[in-house]
Amino acid sequence: MEDYLKLFVEETSFYNRVVLGTFLPESWWGPLPHMLQGWLRNYIGGILLYFISGFLWCFYIYHLKRNVYIPKDAIPSNKAMLLQISVAMKAMPWYCALPTLSEYMIENGWTKCFARISDVGWPSYVIYTAVYLVIVEFGIYWVHKLLHDIKPLYKYLHATHHIYNKQNTLSPFAGLAFHPLDGILQAVPHVIALFLVPMHFTTHIALIFLEGLWTANIHDCIHGKVWPVMGAGYHTIHHTTYRHNYGHYTIWMDWMFGTLRDPVEEDAKKM
User: Fold this and answer.
1) In which element (H, E) is residue 101 found?
2) What sequence ranges are listed for the domain Fatty acid hydroxylase (predicted)?
3) Would you say 35 and 13 are in contact if contact means Cβ atoms under 8 Å apart?
4) What is the spatial distance between Cα 83 and Cα 79, in angstroms, rounded to a whole number?
5) All residues at 6 or more sequence positions from 246 whose CB lies less than 8 Å from its CB, including other chains
6) Residues with Cβ < 8 Å from 59, sequence gap 6 or more?
7) Looking at residue 244, what DSSP letter applies?
């Protein structure tokens, strides 16, 4: 068992060398404990993902495609985007604690993670990943809904994110503009799922970082109309009504629990 767990440590150590070795002298990070190296790598990776994806997407939709996807009067101001960046940067060190903790638990054999797809085979890998995603979808839906329904949680945590409640205040940079505890709570289902279903370690790490891209995407106000994806059109309604579309990747949980509101139907009502 100890030999198998070394595979996880070797993988995280490889990520540390790639990220930290690229941006920092080894003398700065080499002496740090392995867990702290992991946190620092997650922090640098999170910042890069946030700014690169945010700036590229904003440049594309607000400048290259100006007035194509979003009317001029619906483009958020620079002031609004700078505020979102400020909130996200204050929370980023805390966000990175969760994947660092999950890596620690995986490396110590506390979870059901496996290191190689060949250990279970491709059919089982696909099934396990699908079950993992269902658990994550279910968990994020209910965490998000409770953050709205329980008044103290909304007032002291989730309201920080919901100051962006109009199309001209939403941008890709709003995707991570949360109270730190709010952002962590909404990512916790990713960790809980590791104790419930076998999960490929690399896929888990990739999905954690995919969250950063996904949250940027669903705050750009562009309705992609790809069923059953819970895209930006649905999430914009969530920011304006506060009572619909709590889901994450898909519309299924909102459909099952009666909180779904379709942006196409909303547009039809306005006509």
Assistant:
1) helix 97-107
2) 130-259
3) no
4) 6
5) 141, 144, 145, 148, 238, 253, 254, 259
6) none
7) S
d(CA 52, CA 55) in angstroms, rounded, equals 5
Q: Which of 12-21, 24-33, 53-62, 107-116 has the weakest average pLDDT?
A: 53-62
Residue with tokens 């660092």: 100
**What is the pLDDT, as a whole number, of residue 269?**
61
Burial of residue 164 (CB within 10 Å: 0-12, 13-18, 19+) is buried
Phi–psi pair at 223, nearest 5 degrees = -85, 110
CA pseudo-torsion sign 19, 21, 26, 30: positive
Residue pair 111/194 in contact (Cβ under 8 Å)? The answer is yes
Tokens 């909180």 — which residue?
Answer: 259
CA–CA distance, 68 with 189 (Å, rounded to integer): 36
What does residue 115 show for φ and ψ, rounded to 5 degrees? -90, -30
For residues 58 and 172, the answer to whether their CB atoms sit within 8 Å is: yes
**pLDDT average, residue stretch 28-39:** 97
Is the confidence at residue 167, as pLDDT, over 90? no
Per-residue pLDDT tens digits for 35-65: 999 999 999 999 999 999 999 999 999 888 8
